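Outer membrane protein assembly factor BamA (Thiocapsa roseopersicina), 759 aa
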Amino acid sequence: MTLLLAINMPVAAEVFQIADIRVEGLQRIAPGTVFNYLPVQVGDTVGDGVTGGIIRSLYQTGFFDDVRVEREGNVLVLWVRERPAIASIDITGNRDIDTKALTAALSDIGLKEGRVFDRSVLDRIEQELERQYFSRGKYGVLIQSTVSPLERNRVAVRIEITEGLTARIKQITIIGNEAFPEKELLKRFELGTTGWTSFYSKNDQYSKQKLAGDLETLRSFYLDRGFIRFDIKSTQVSISADKKEIYITVVIDEGEPYRIGDIKLAGEPSIPAEELFPLIQLKRGDFFSRRATTESAERISNLLGDRGYAFANVNTIPEIDEEARTVTVTFFVDPGQRVYVRRVNMKGNTRTRDEVLRREMRQLESAWFSAELVRKSRERLQRLGYFEDVTIETPAVPGSADQVDVDVTVTEKPAGNLSAGVGYSQSQGILFNASVTQNNFLGTGKRVSFGVNTSEATQLYQIAYTNPFYTVDGISRGFNVSYRETDFDELIGADYSTDVGVLGMNFGLPISETSRAGLGVRYQYTNFIAGNFSELAQQFVEENGNVFNDFILSASYTNDSRDTAIFPTKGGLRVLRADLAVPGSDLQYYKLTYQEQLYVPLTSRFVVSLSGDVGYGEGYGETDGLPFFENYYAGGPRSVRGFVANSLGPREVGDDDPVGGNFRMAGSLELFAPAPGGPQLSKTLRLGAFLDFGNVWETNGSDLIEPTGFDIGDLRYSAGVSATWLSPIGALSISLAAPLNEEEGDETQVFQFGFGQTF
């Protein structure tokens, strides 16, 4: 790019008034566009220095490669050469970076079809692309840009990318470690050499950010073990000549370990020291730990916050004795003034009534402020399911040193839900479901629903109503009316069916923040239809009839501490339930069921799930044993994967149909991992590897049922992998399982899936 001032007459020597302005050399740009950027206009006087300003103004537009200013009489003549326009952009060779995303990024920078071409912009793009590929471990990337001129002052831009191979970490070396072996230190690094899980974890791909995190982890490891003078002297990252292998060397100075000499409290805690010292997880004589010190200070601060000291400040002051190599830790506590809550304000609830939110609040007005109660209030509001988001702020009251307001802001979800869907299950065939649900009916917090679910094996019609706050104490009351037709021939291959109608009422009593007790009563009408090919069903009808009117009492205990109902990562779910067909019913029996699920986070990405399920049923009075159509079943996606659904356990003598049993034991150990592809995909897709076990037994025995008295050795085991996807049109769950100890007569099924089901 050159600047050339060609003047036919010496403008600087003679001042003149512009009578006209003429622009020469324009091809695409309109003259009016040029006039808009000029610092002069017709009638202005041109003197010394004005022409330089004209040239600078036109160059700054970025439209021109060359600008000249001339004078013809009193006419100011501008000679320009336009920069070429970009006619096309072609990108090839990019596999790691999506072309659409890359094109959009180039457009934001200024490289886009139709715009003026600027070589400096293309240079910056090449440098940024290199940095992007370097961050992916591809240090051998080669980026070549070609600019080809076209007619009408246009150019075609072609960016050729040769990505090369991803460089892998060949070795990580730590120098200077004496107290701990290198292997133990490297176990705490996210980065590492290539292993059998590297294809998934990408731990062997170097990242500057990951290395910085690993170094901080290394520092914390030493500081938590008394090495308070620990220092990282240097970090070197080198790459092989072929740019395929990376070597990392970390030089450290451990220093000497220091022990805790004394622990002190200072300041004005406002809470007796005997309540604060148990919160300090430090002991005299132990190695100093930064983490334990920080956690102790946080516990003290949280306790003060729960007692109303919302603005408490706890600082730790270490005093080091170099000769004795000890540290005296002083916790300086400044509680500030005790704070009250003036008002609890609700915002954003345009449909939901204030009382629905306020009854979930554990932090009350005119009470001491408690950080714990504020947190519990937010959790309870989130668990309602009425809101997409819940935020709580606690601003200080202007002009007051001891008062705060609690401002609750919610973003409401749609009040109702109308849904219909079609799915498929290997155990029940094609599924059709439709439902109308109001979780927050008219903003009252009450739940009203009507649903229809049909499949080849089952047809269910149901109406339900629940008032979660039937009383101000949080006792719930609900009603349920349902009718279910079940064809056991389609479900398990047995020649009988049932039509069951239910009319019930239930109550729930809160015991704690996470647990509830339930009590219910229901009338149950059962029409049992025996087929012509089941001696067991025909015998049951002969002994008991085929129409039954039963009154059933149920009691339950539920403790749900999971962080979320879908894809939980921590907490657990425990359910204990008992059902009793009371004396006077046509059938007299009881069923006891206990289920437990426990979720333990191993890392931020991996979660272990432990689940167990035990059920037992028995008849009493005039009913001999548990009615077999109330039996438990095992096998399939919901119990022991790898075996055909409901196929395990006792079978009817003769036709060999599964009939279930009155005792069931099942469980699973599963390792969950989010799907690769970022946090958004992890919200809808979860992968797992599992070990299942279970079976059912008939403890009473019968001449028409193969005897299977309880024997722990009868447990069936399977192992495999699973995936669950919350698709836009329904939940899809699949599993590949291999039975580990199948016996003769077992029905196995390696691949199993369900679509459109609740799970």
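Residues 167 and 244 are 4 Å apart (CA to CA). The radius of gyration is 38 Å. ok done for today
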